[in-house]
Design brief:
Elements (H helix, E strand, L loop, with lengths): L1 H15 L3 H35 L4 H11 L4 H12 L14 H25 L5 H7 L4 H11 L1 H16 L3 H7 L9 H10 L3 H31 L1
Helix pairs in contact: 1-11, 2-5, 2-8, 3-5, 4-5, 4-9, 5-8, 5-9, 6-7, 8-11, 10-11
């Protein structure tokens, strides 16, 4: 218990003394995970709309793959993305390996199946004929999609929360494609692992506490948005 309290005290010291490195790491963690979640939402909602409203052949197989993707091992994702971005890989000419962009790609790959699978379930809870009724009233396809998303906004926001949680808590893929480079690709999760490997458990506990506070702040914000919309 003493180690935990020492870590919490160290976390408050790092936060309130304006430690530039900690702020940089925290901002990078939030930025890459937020970007990855945004990409996952764009891709996930598009695929979810197609699967939920179009009912194409093989939908059950596609959904089973998406559900399996929710348990996709991050180290496997990191390996595949690293191979793709390696200098001799298909995307090597982009020179993205060991950059924040590579972490965004890896985290987006991890978060997309989570967002997509949960979004399909959310949209399938709507009345099957609701989309046809909206279109019959003269709405365009984009307007119809927006109205349906608003109707299913509560579980869709929950899907966004799950996707963000999967992204920001990931460590293996981020280390493989980002390299955990100080001042460039070091995030809160990779920094925590680094401090543990150094035997600096107090600093590791402090970084872990900061990560938990950051995650809670984001989730609290999304929950407030979710519940306010519900009340309205």
């Amino acid at each position: 218990m003493e180690l935990i309290w020492d870590g919490i005290r160290e976390a408050f010291r790092l936060i309130f003394t304006g430690n530039a490195e900690v702020y940089e790491i925290a901002f990078l963690s939030l930025a890459v995970s937020g970007a990855a979640t945004g990409i996952a939402l764009i891709i996930g909602l598009s695929i979810a709309s197609f699967l939920a409203f179009r009912a194409p052949p093989g939908r059950t197989l596609a959904l089973s793959l998406l559900n399996s993707g929710m348990a996709l091992p991050p180290v496997v994702v990191g390996l595949v993305v690293a191979v793709m971005l390696w200098r001799t890989g298909p995307l090597g000419q982009l020179h993205l390996l060991y950059t924040p962009a590579a972490i965004v790609i890896a985290q987006a790959v991890i978060a997309t199946p989570v967002v997509t699978a949960l979004s399909v379930v959310a949209l399938q809870t709507l009345h099957p004929k609701l989309r046809l009724q909206v279109l019959a009233l003269g709405a365009s396809r984009w307007q119809a999609a927006w109205l349906l998303f608003r109707e299913a906004r509560l579980p869709l926001i929950a899907a966004a929360m799950a996707g963000f949680g999967a992204a920001i808590s990931e460590v293996g893929a981020s280390m493989m494609v980002g390299g955990n480079i100080k001042g460039s690709t070091r995030t809160l999760t990779t920094s925590t692992v680094l401090e543990v490997s150094r035997g600096n458990l107090e600093a590791a506990m402090a970084l872990a506490f900061i990560l938990l506070v950051l995650v809670y702040a984001v989730m609290l914000t999304l929950t407030i948005v979710q519940q306010r919309r519900r009340a309205s």
